[in-house]
Write a structure and sequence with these properties.
about 300 residues; TIM Barrel; alpha/beta; eight-stranded parallel β-sheet; Hydroxymethylglutaryl-CoA lyase (chains A, B); 12 helices; metal ion binding (chains A, B); hydroxymethylglutaryl-CoA lyase activity (chains A, B); homodimer
């Protein structure tokens, strides 16, 4: 099986995972959690978003989070920004890099950021140019790549066009988002076959939600295409407030387990990571979909009961 | 993506799924459920096991179940049997075919059926010959193919030897069981690369448990090797009483969704099937791991609340 020897797993839990929790996670807890994540060997953490609090109240403490976390060497602490106002706040909070986002679907883009695709490009272009002027790298997200809750299927040509535009404007990487967790392995194969014709595998990342349980299957397809960057969230936290039926990101620890067992190294310490996932599970007080976390809690329970 | 156009999904929920429920599912409920499953378009249901009630008390009503269900045309109603005593009971209950089982692991085999591998062969041989004499087909299960809770890794040579022996004795198909849900896609690829050298894809089936969330990823690998038979259980029910950490089979509805979305036909009506899965979820009163079932219940809840 021809897959990369090493991949980068980008932890998006503190942003994508917590953005829908309606402010119930205290700032100090987020900071403690990010500090714990930073000690797992992970090389990239998306710690928050600098979006107007009206849209993402749960992340309105982004500046405090960014300023108070312990920065570990070798870890990139990134934040999502929608425009130059957000970028300014992110820069003030001294994040290492930023991520911009838009949708491959006209309707989802309008619902999510209240702009047409055409109107979005100059906004992101300004962010990318301003960030570059201060020496910050910019990552790009394209959402609803594999399907839109409003428009249904999205053509690969559309995805290609948005990806091309973002890369041309200067993002170093485009993360292809399966916002509603609808991608199947055949479709993932088709999309990647097309995109890797025009773009290098280093320019592409995959961002799967596990709504229908297909995230790891799609990851395998991504690996066989040579993709080396995968987004995930501890515990399988996550969702999108403007996409009905969009549940959690693929759980980082489920992804890590599969990769490491296949001999694909990630640089992340599994046992430290599962403890960080357990920490946030305990905080959010909702059953998280992670399989490894379920096993971990079952083992802990058995140890407690002395049955192990 | 080169995968078969059509596959057979064998529903093992009434046996593998319910064998650990300690007798809490009433016989009439099992019958009603199997009747419902039989109307979904599924072509094979493993309805029970004829094992001594001491070992599987939850399935001690096998004869009553087999005799009282409505038999749908085109559906094979099968039962698991450990020996000729079980076979005799299965034949008396007029099942369409039987399945025999053994482990690729010496230790697991001993724990599960109290015999060495060598001692097991003549017992199964007698079952296969007796069944053949009455015109019944026999399926073979090999468990712990991808790892054993006692012995760890199992060599492909061992799996090959057991598979070969079972096929030589006369089973029409060997179902390769990932009893503890530990198989990863690279390993699945390695095992299938080896096995398809000696056996035809028609002689092999895959039986994944989804303990670590890798079942659908492994299924993709199986499909690319041309395997066309996959075992699963409605709702993701299941487990093995003699293998610690062995949780549910891959959920049939999650498998069906992925296959149908990829254009691989199964002959099973998804919406009828999800209702059958919802029925048993309601009965077993424990949260089942199926993603499609979670979505179904969320949609039902939204409809009830008039928010949809």
């Amino acid at each position: 099986m021809d897959v990369p020897e090493r991949v980068t797993v980008k932890e998006v839990g503190p942003r994508d995972g917590l953005q829908n929790t309606a402010g119930t996670v205290p700032t100090a807890t987020k900071i403690a959690w990010i500090n714990q994540l930073g000690k797992t060997g992970v090389s990239y953490i998306e710690i928050t978003a600098f979006v107007h609090p009206k849209w993402l109240p749960a992340l309105s403490d982004g500046a405090e989070v960014a300023c108070r976390i312990q920065r570990e060497p070798g870890v990139t602490y990134a934040a999502l920004v929608p425009n130059v106002t957000g970028l300014a706040r992110a820069l003030e909070a001294n994040v290492d890099e930023v991520a911009v986002f838009m949708s491959a679907s006209e309707t989802h883009n309008r619902k999510n950021i209240n702009k047409s695709l055409k109107e979005t490009y100059p906004v992101l272009d300004e962010v990318i140019r301003t960030a570059a002027a201060t020496g910050k790298k910019v990552r790009g997200y394209v959402s609803t790549v594999f399907g839109c809750p409003y428009e249904g299927e999205i053509s690969v040509e559309r995805v290609k066009a948005v990806t091309d535009r973002l890369l041309t404007m200067g993002v170093y990487e485009v993360s292809l988002g399966d916002t509603i967790g609808i991608a199947d392995p055949r479709q993932t194969n088709e999309v990647l076959t097309e995109l890797t014709r025009d773009f290098s595998t280093e320019q592409l990342a995959l961002h799967f939600h596990d709504t229908r349980g297909m995230a790891l299957a799609n990851t395998i397809v991504g690996l066989t295409h040579g993709i080396t960057t995968f987004d995930s969230a501890a515990g399988g936290l996550g969702g999108c407030p403007y996409a009905k039926g969009a549940t959690g990101n693929v759980a980082t620890e489920d992804l890590l387990y599969m990769l490491e067992k296949m001999g694909v190294s990630t640089g992340i310490d599994f046992s430290r990571f599962i403890e960080a996932a357990a920490y946030i599970d305990d905080i959010v007080q909702q059953p998280l979909p992670s399989r490894q976390l379920s096993m971990y809690f079952r083992e802990q329970e058995e140890k407690r009961q002395g049955r192990s």
